[in-house]
Amino acid sequence: MSELQGLGAQLSEAEKTGVEIVAISPDPNEQSQKVAEGLRLGYRFLADRDLAIARRYGPVHAGGGPDGQDVPRPATVVLDRDGVVRWFSVSRNFQVRPDPEDVLRAVRAL
Amino acid sequence: MTSSTRLAALSVIVAVGAVAAYVLLLRVAVVRNHPEGYVVAFALTTALAALAVIRARGRRWPAWLALGLSGLLLLGGAWFNFVVARVPVAPTGLRVGERPPDFTLPDAAGRPVSLADYRGRKPVVIVFYRGYW
């Protein structure tokens, strides 16, 4: 969760309206709603219950969950206005997330 | 207090401090993104405790206790960081300059959201995260 807070906290108000941050996890909607309210950030929390989208995009850690289930591999993708990938980062250690500064640099370069 | 006991106490304080600092500063990107830092801290406290054991005269249990604590933290921390937390490298379909597939997923309120909704309107940052747990 901490990466979501870091990224949101460093966006200016103008940037928050100029870019959409879409957070995707297998959390059910109710859980995402709680997280969204707790963070008070302008994120869209989307529920990818069966990891269908994570699988289509690639960042899946097979068997990486506490019960041996597949879990998302932490990843961040920056798309420009036309929906084209301009930057992305996929974690190789699940404790490590992209530095918000790097994500913001990619966003500001658009 | 003998120098051995002082070294043992220092070892325990630094080890406990490293755990506390890591947990408290997890939101700071530079701390979170260098988890090997806690392994290095535990290696340091293990070395301090080993020195305490070598210097111990008479009352040896504080030094051995410190060595046991730091040794366990070092083994556990190294195992977690280098084995458990490592995500096997697997190719993703993502390419810079390409348009990834569209998707539609329900948002927190259950309303469907499509990536295509933003095309021509806004840049989008997609964050895949492991969930609340």
Describe this structure in words.
The complex is a heterodimer of chains A (110) and B (133). With 110 residues, chain A is α+β, with helices and mostly antiparallel strands. Chain A has a single domain (2-108), classed as Glutaredoxin, CATH 3.40.30.10. Chain A is built from five helices and six strands; from the N terminus they run H-H-E-H-E-H-E-E-E-E-H. Chain A has a two-stranded parallel sheet with strand order 1-2. Chain A has a two-stranded antiparallel sheet with strand order 3-4. Chain B starts with a helix and ends in a 5-residue tail after the last strand. Chain B has a domain at 3-84. In chain B, a hairpin with a 5-residue loop joins strand 1 (104-106) and strand 2 (112-114). Chain B has helices at 3-24, 29-32, 36-55, 61-84, and strands at 104-106, 112-114, 124-128. Chain B is elongated. In chain B, strands 1-2 form a two-stranded antiparallel sheet. In chain B, helix 3 packs antiparallel against helix 4 (61-84). By secondary structure, chain B is mainly alpha-helical. Chain B is built from four helices and three strands, in the order H-H-H-H-E-E-E. Strand 5 (75-79) of chain A pairs antiparallel with strand 3 (124-128) of chain B, so a sheet runs across the interface.
Strand content of chain A: 15-25%
Distance between termini of chain B? 44 Å
Counted by DSSP, the helix tally of chain A is 5
Which shape of chain B, going by the Cα principal axes? elongated
Show unreliable segments of chain B: none
The helix/strand order of chain B is: HHHHEEE
Structural class by helix and strand composition of chain A: alpha+beta
**Average pLDDT, all residues of chain A:** 82
Q: What is the overall pLDDT average of chain B? A: 91
CATH class assignment of chain A: Alpha Beta
* Oligomeric state: heterodimer
**N-to-C order of helices and strands of chain A:** HHEHEHEEEEH
Instruction: Count the DSSP helices of chain B.
Output: 4
CATH architecture of chain A: 3-Layer(aba) Sandwich
What topology, given as strand order, has the largest sheet of chain B? 1-2
- β-strand amount of chain B: 5-15%
Backbone structural class of chain B:
mainly alpha
Shape of chain A from CA axes? Answer: globular
Biggest sheet features of chain B: 2 strands, antiparallel
